[in-house]
From TrEMBL:
GO terms for molecular function: oxidoreductase activity. The lineage of its organism: Bacteria, Bacillati, Actinomycetota, Actinomycetes, Mycobacteriales. Belongs to the short-chain dehydrogenases/reductases (SDR) family. This is SDR family oxidoreductase. SUPFAM superfamilies: NAD(P)-binding Rossmann-fold domains. One of its GO terms (cellular component) is membrane. It comes from the Bacteria. Residues 18-197 form the Ketoreductase domain. The keyword Oxidoreductase applies. InterPro entries: KR_dom, NAD(P)-bd_dom_sf, SDR_fam. PANTHER family: DEHYDROGENASE/REDUCTASE SDR FAMILY MEMBER 7B (PTHR44196), DEHYDROGENASE_REDUCTASE SDR FAMILY MEMBER 7B (PTHR44196:SF1).
Length: 310
């Protein structure tokens, strides 16, 4: 039976001394989860493309954390980060494959480079993270947590590669579970609604129509969940080696109803507000000359878009 992570539940087994590898650990969900795991006594290998951010998080946690700089799409860099962490702490018990990015605008105008980069980080980066840590995870009969999203079964407009990539992560978790369960490795997948992270704040800042779109969606889809709530749910799920973690709990209902969204009945979910949001998003992309946040462009050393292509 699948156990759900419900806010307010008690954390069970002890995580003291366990070693966790977290990607995207420099901010947002990765950072908050790192602090919560540290409070539970875990030791941490923190990976992020942003050196300043990941070193700041590691310093705040102290000697039980080491910060490593790597782009998750660079397998050699990830291997080196994992090797450094294993040399320091002796192995890896937990992986949180969390690094991810979002893009803006319609498929009609989305820059191909931005689409490819989004898929590379959100899918290939998750696989590379798992692959680099897998020898130690198998040896220790550990736990993998792949971070997907409610977008895996509730794809919305203007998400570009985000929703397809998160659906791919969902299936990757299922495939890994089938392969690894006989080796004593547990595989979990996390599905979240809007979480108050730099990713969401970037969207809010760059897309003026996003706030109106959330209002039109109505409750509970219009609510942004505090990042600490998400981190608490992750840590409970990690401690219990859960198959699925839903943040908040009602996401499980959306998961059950995902096939309706692909039906003609589901077409009614996307009303006139979708066209308005897409038009405003495309206008924002053209104005900013980018289809993702400025922070993502800086981290990836990517140029701004050529406006003539929009």
């Amino acid at each position: 039976m699948t156990h759900l992570s419900v806010v307010g539940a008690r954390t069970t087994p002890d995580l003291t001394g366990k070693v966790a590898l977290i990607t995207g650990a420099g901010n947002g969900i990765g950072c908050a989860t790192a602090h919560r795991l540290a409070a539970e006594g875990a030791r941490l290998i923190l990976v992020d493309i942003d050196r300043s951010a990941v070193e700041t998080v590691a310093a705040a946690i102290g000697p039980r954390a080491c910060g490593q700089v790597a782009d998750v799409t660079d397998y050699s860099a990830l291997e080196a980060a994992v090797r450094a962490g294993v040399e320091r702490f002796g192995g890896i018990d937990i992986v949180v494959a969390n690094a991810g990015v979002a893009t803006y605008g319609s498929f009609r105008h989305l820059d191909p480079q931005a689409f490819r980069r989004g898929m590379d980080i959100n899918v290939t980066g998750v696989y590379f993270t798992v692959r680099a840590a897998l020898p130690s995870i198998i040896e220790r009969r550990g736990y993998l947590l792949l971070v997907s999203s409610m977008a895996a079964f509730l794809p919305g407009p203007g998400m570009g590669p985000y929703a397809p990539s998160k659906a791919a992560v969902d299936h990757l978790a299922t495939s890994l579970r089938a392969e690894l369960r006989r080796r004593g490795v547990a595989v979990g997948c996390a599905y979240m609604t809007w979480i108050d992270t730099p990713l969401i704040r970037d969207v809010q800042a760059d897309l003026p129509g996003f706030a109106d779109y959330l209002k039109q969606l109505g409750p509970p889809l219009d609510r942004i969940v505090p990042v600490d709530v998400c981190a608490d749910a992750f840590v409970r799920g990690i401690a219990r080696r859960q198959r699925q973690i839903f943040v908040p709990w009602w996401i499980v209902v959306a998961a059950w109803g995902k096939h309706l969204l692909a039906s003609r009945l589901g077409d009614r979910f996307f009303g006139p507000e979708v066209d308005d949001f897409i038009d405003r998003s495309d206008a924002a992309v053209a104005e900013h000359h980018r289809a993702t946040s400025a922070r993502n462009l800086r981290n990836a050393n990517m140029p701004a878009l050529d406006r003539s292509g929009l």
